[in-house]
Amino acid sequence: MSALATTTIQDSKVLHVCDLNAWYGESHVLHGVDFNVSRGEVVTLLGRNGAGKSTTLKAIVGLLRTRKGSVLIEGTETMNLPSRRVAGLGIGYVPEDRGIYATLTVQENLMLPPQVRPDGFSLEQIFNLFPNLKARLTSYGDRLSGGEQQMLAMARVLRTGAKFLLLDEPTEGLAPVIVEQIGNMLQQLKRQGYSMLLVEQNFEFAQSLADRHYIVDQGRVVDAFTAASADREQAKIRRYLGV
Ligand SMILES: Nc1ncnc2c1ncn2[C@@H]1O[C@H](COP(=O)(O)OP(=O)(O)OP(=O)(O)O)[C@@H](O)[C@H]1O
Ligand SMILES: [Mg+2]
Q: How far is the CA of 74 from the centre of ligand 2 (A)?
């Protein structure tokens, strides 16, 4: 057996995070985060400002190097893998700031990242899902609306062939009509079998897509419940989110 085979566990989980700790310099921010995402599931991380939601995503994809614990993606331990190998496992991260290059056009932004897997979206598939982007192909990144930037950022990770998306507040600052469009696109991807880990402050939006929710507080997962039981958990959700 190869060394890799010994660290690969076959199960239905696309993500298994266990006792994840992370630091910014001296500042210990994640204190043993535990949760998982099954294949085809949409799971959210909810929590107040500063709870550690974005840090959890960054630590999963290896943008935060000072970390400890275990992150299994598709059954493969990724803590010591180079980031290119992690991308090759089919994970795609859309950061909170969307990471669009201001001085490149929509087309250039789309073509920049490599298609790390052969089954990445073609430009035609991207334009079917995001017709707005086709109309804006030659526009520069800094001329796009917030909604167009969000769609471009999502399109870019779909081009890589990622089937498991980490989305950090995709609806932040967007008008309700755009939020609805993004919700419809994510529903389509969910129907196609994509798995998602979604960080959201907009609980209504999260609830419309999610199968399960986790609550993050002070760098830990402190509670979990299914979307089906969310009605009964309203008081708890409000208390944790401070709304
Ligand atoms: N680059 C950084 N350097 C130092 N500390 C940071 C940095 N980014 C975040 N933090 C701190 O880490 C903690 C968790 O932040 P994080 O961004 O993960 O929270 P969040 O749950 O995503 O919040 P928000 O809802 O505001 O986006 C906070 O105390 C924050 O101040
Ligand atoms: Mg955040």
A: 25
Both tokens of residue 235?
A: 């008081």
Q: CA-CA distances (angstroms) from residue 1 to 4, 9, 86?
A: 8, 13, 21
Distances, alpha carbon 199 to alpha carbons 52, 114, 182, 231, in Å: 10, 25, 14, 19
Per the rule left: phi > 0, alpha: psi between -120 and 50, beta: everything else, 47 is left
Cβ(214)–Cβ(233) below 8 Å:
no
Per the listing, tokens 């980490």 go with 166
Q: Return d(Cα 186, Cα 198) in angstroms, integer.
A: 10
What tens digit of pLDDT does each residue of 191-239 get?
Answer: 999 999 999 988 889 999 999 999 999 999 999 999 999 888 888 888 8
The closest of 178, 231, 169 to 201, measured between CA atoms, is 169
Cα 144 to ligand 1 centre (Å)? 27
Domain ranges of the chain: 40-63+89-241
| Cβ of 221 less than 6 Å from ligand 1 | no
Q: Are 167 and 198 in contact (CB under 8 A)?
A: yes
Tell me the fold of 40-63+89-241.
Rossmann fold (3.40.50)
Work out the end-to-end distance of the chain between its first and last CA atoms, rounded to an integer number of angstroms: 52
